[in-house]
Amino acid sequence: METEEKINTQELGEKIVKVLKTIYDPEIPVDIYELGLIYDVFVNEDYEVKVIMTLTTPNCPVAESLPQEVRDKVASLKMVKDAEVELTFDPAWSQELMSEEAKLELGML
């Protein structure tokens, strides 16, 4: 049973990442996952999800709506019982957090 739990939470983690890759920063044509805005995703055995994320700047125009969109999209996944988003600016986001794919897309490589 325990192995099944691990597979399910891992599988759910992968689904969460897929959903996060559908959310874009409105100012940068790259999804928030590839941008490095997602710092961590936790899934407990009750399928409650906590996403720790940041924004490109604290006064980002989507400071209110982006975390809400992340919460709503993650919560809409069938296996997710509840979703919470924690916004942090420690450490502050920097371009080093972007994936190679994001840097390539933005012409930074």
From TrEMBL:
Domain of life: Bacteria
InterPro entries reported for this sequence: Fe-S_Maturation_MIP18, FSCA_dom_sf, MIP18-like
Range of residues in the leader sequence: none
Coiled coil ranges: none
Positions of the MIP18 family-like domain: 14-86
Protein's recorded name: SUF system Fe-S cluster assembly protein
Organism per entry: Planktosalinus lacus
